Amino acid sequence: MKTVVFDFDGTLVDSSKDIAGAFCESLKRSGLEVPPLEAVYPLIGRPLSEMYAGFAESGQIDELIAGYRAIYPTLWTEHTRAFPGVTNVLSGLREKGCRLTVATTKGTDTVRTIATQLGLDHYFDHLQGTDGFAHKPAPDVVLRALAGAGGTGAWMVGDTVADILAGKAAGLKTYAVTWGTHDEATLREVEPDALEPNLNALLTLL
To answer: Is pTM, for the whole model, over 0.85?
Structure first.
């Protein structure tokens, strides 16, 4: 059985407003300058330590991360929704006999909770977060997602350069979607096998 690995934020769900909102609120509570949400959107998908690096001193980052992790659960699904057509594509892939899994920078417990709240959890054989090991573009989370889902790895689907590089490093074909964090020109630089405005083409590729 072929296994498709999906990134979560920016690929399956539009969560940018909730993530950026929690990020900015943590800066505000620490008395730091708060950027516009639009300045945070391009950073989504990176580890929190990297996201905060441009807005705070290194000694403040642990406190900011703790603040974010306290704030974000209150916003998880305030604005976050699956992108249009996502459930149809997931259903279609299941009907084709594919195994489906998620590999995200979020923690495993967090992505499981959000996927459940959005009614997406039942489409997946496994949901894998980045829990104390190397983040994308390292392939670790992708390989763990594949191990959890079983089957033969086929495609890595994501919206950022890090997703595509992680998929390549894991030995998968790569599918970049342009409705998330990185635009078409940025994604084209890392030469994904497929570059599409949405997920629909997956149904013909598998």
So the answer is: yes
The Cα 26–Cα 175 span in angstroms is 33
Residues assigned a catalytic role: 7
Reply yes or no: is the peptide bond before residue 36 cis, omega within 30 of 0.
no
Q: Report angle CA 119, 124, 125 to the nearest 5 degrees.
A: 145
* Strand-pair category, 126-128 with 99-103: parallel
Angle ∠(130,90,72) on CA atoms, nearest 5: 40
State the DSSP H helix or E strand holding residue 89, giving kind and residue range, or none if neither: helix 86-95
**Segment 69-87, tens digit of pLDDT:** 999 888 878 899 999 999 9
Above 90 in pLDDT, residue 179? yes
* φ and ψ at residue 184, rounded to 5 degrees: -60, -45
Residue 31: exposed, middle, or buried by beta-carbon count in 10 A (0-12, 13-18, 19+)? Answer: exposed
Phi (first) and psi of residue 165, to 5 degrees: -65, -40
Instruction: Give the integer Cα–Cα distance in Å for 100 and 149.
Output: 7
Mention every residue, 6+ apart, whose C-beta is less than 8 A from residue 15. 8, 9, 44, 79, 80, 114
> In the predicted model, what is the mean pLDDT of residues 30-43?
92
